[in-house]
Amino acid sequence: MKYALLASVCASLESTTKRLEKTALLSALLGKTSSQDLPAVILLVRGKVFPPWDERKIGVAEQLVIRAIAAGTGHSLPLIQEQWKKTGDLGDAASFLMQSRQQQTLFTEELSLNEVYLTLRKLAAVEGPGSVDIKVNLIAKLLTAASPDEARYIVRTVLEEMRVGIGEGTLRDAIVWAFLPQVAGLFDEYLEPVRQETSLDTVHGLVSVPRDARIIAPDEKTARSIYTALVDAVQHAYDMVNDFGTVAQVVQKKGLKGLEEVQLEIGKPIKVMLFKKAKDMEDALTTVGKPAALEFKYDGFRMQIHKKGSQVMLFTRNLEQVTAQFPDVVAAVNSNTKANTCILDGEVVGFDPKTKRYLPFQSISQRIRRRHNIMHMAQEFPVELTLFDIMYHNGIQLLDTPFSQRREILSSSVIPENYKIVLAQQCNANTLEEADAFYQKARDAGQEGVMAKKLDAPYKPG
Fold first, then answer.
1. Which of 58, 380, 412, 459 is most buried, most CB within 10 Å of its CB?
2. What is the topology classification, in CATH, of domain 47-159?
3. What rounded mean pLDDT belongs to the chain?
């Protein structure tokens, strides 16, 4: 695929604020994309070259991009900065200046999507002496061969600010439109008509409908329930792997049946399960029912742990990989968990190494961004890993397993050791009095409060 096609679609996406128009434009692009190129297209259209959980980052500042624009166009740094000030967008400034560039390359081949994608990924690996010049040259080489539109989106991708208004919901719906059956009466004006029509009265049997078919439902309510089932199938697969590129490849090759087969993968973090805030304990028990599983709510930061053999990967709530910053947690997981493969959910809590008193989150927050003197930081600001859920255990996915059973599996998989790795303190409360007493116990221990969970609840990512 030529990068010009992606740039053209991005320009069209940027020109409209209507979500359905954006969905139609993006679905048309995905429909033209080979399986091999789908991951790159899906990342690039959102101004990325790595998925959110990948520890690699482009890491290029605006001033370096300005130097690359100067090298690629022959224009002076002051002129570029002046144009940037006028437009407020360095990508727009690059696009404008490309129209009057002083640097011209004869017989330049059109940029391919893969060339842009792989070159921008190289930026993350450039380190050490001379790295700035190497990065400038890599970007400048692309800009020299780029059209004004292509330059706009190359620069924005380098800065990871695409500005075309594509969120997760639009991307998910575009995958549905591109690779799953149409539903007659819904979005007809945005979709190309297909020849084959299939009548369907319910969502049952949907998996057997050819993906290039047009479903005829008896009424609008049924049509919308069928469409919702298609959207939910894509969303469920995305929840498993947090990677729309993988999801798009699966549905393009295997359709709806393939989506149902998507499983959690070690190394690909999922969005953690979130909880609603209750007004008081009575409100919490009304929401989850009795008996309720109550757990201390710890004043730390959320951590998702992936383990495969001796390899351990740690991710924050925002899916950022922080394995290198917490060698002490990696060691604790390796020494104190019995499972060969698992995905765990927990909280990292700091404590004073002298008094052993637990500390507020702010005391250890600096460890997340630390890149140097890591072992010293681990000794000065030690942490305890507190586990409260398990989503995957020795090859078995546990998302649909009731919470009470997941807790039992977690308990049997961990060897607790104070100030290293422990299980969240828990009790099953049958009455409001028991719940209030446990809440007070949490507060007396210096924790934020308690979490109330349904004993039969599945794990719902996000």
1. 459
2. DNA ligase i, domain 1 (1.10.3260)
3. 94
